[in-house]
Here is the input.
Amino acid sequence: MKEKPVYLDNNATTAIAPEVLDEMLPYLKEFYGNPSSMHTFGGQLHKKLEEARERVAALIGAEPGEIIFTSCGTESDNTAIMSAVDSRRDKRHIVTSSVEHPAVLNFSKHLARKGYRVTFLPVNNLGQLDMDAFFKAIDDDVAVVSIMYANNETGVLFPIAELGAALRDRGIIFHTDAVQAIGKLPINVKELPVDMLAISGHKLHAPKGVGALYVRKGTRFVPYIFGGHQEHGRRAGTENMASIIGLGKTCEIAKTHIDEEATRVQAMRDRLEKALLEKCPQARVNGDTKNRLPNTTNISFEFVEGEAILLRLDEHGICASSGSACSSGSLEPSHVLRAMGVPFTAIHGSIRFSISRYNTNEDIDKVIEKLPPIIKELRILSPYGR
Ligand code: PLP
Here is the structure.
């Protein structure tokens, strides 16, 4: 691709911020020591490790000791759930939602195959959690509740504060997958009643392959990966230092960009959404448009194939993603849109645009110019065309 792409797929992954890369590079080149070494060359890395921990903690109002570095958001989610069930061997019930990322959904299904009872809470047609089903599911056998902070496909937010408050005195560990929310919304664990919270570097302008798990002080914790004494014995394996330093830096600068998410980023998203709904007949937004991430819109263009839309956008250098089967890299169309009861004709034509602070108004203009004629053409070709 010669031209710079119009990248509107930031919920899939993000560009590494230049300041982050600058801070990382020396630790890939000259300072390659091991932070566990006794000598000064390695030992100096230990200071950087702890600095990164302080920076991640500061973004969410945590204590540095409450942050464990991991290899990704998926590992953080798996670790949280596994630790919760391992530390409550007397309890066999896991409660989660039907719209979680596969990092939670498929791990919960794996535990179900191992004999745990798992409740997948339903959502309504706006993607909001069924609160009656939540209260019904909470029994004395629940070891852990894992509910995402924000859905990656629709951006819909879940009532984490309310859920946490309901669980607080019941001795149930409450984990939230905040991978999509961190850096986009202000989150403060001093006020948010969660025991664990998952973070992934590559969703907030740090590299892929690094994540963190917040574990509230006093929460029982059993490691998921055993080996050396790294992370105070809570996650073994020699630290991915450059990426951890990158995660620390990105968290430090995320604080200064949070307001921009709610203003400039959201304004771009809203302008894109409004224009596409106006210019494309039979288009609808999937999910609650009030309680939503500022950067995400999921729009169904009915009676058109999502893959075809993506291919045509790709010809113009525009990157987005779709909830239809092939383009999402899975065999099944979006489990999130299905759980919301979105009709199949609309799921197949669903496109997610996810914006970041690196997008410009020109990017949005380009999509507004290119997409409506594509939809029109594809509708004519479609067997369902109108
Ligand atoms: N949770 C959510 C909500 C996500 O969107 C993702 C990534 O798409 C993950 C977890 C997994 O994160 P990672 O790619 O770092 O494993």
In short: The domain at 6-14+257-381 is CATH 3.90.1150.10 (Aspartate Aminotransferase, domain 1).
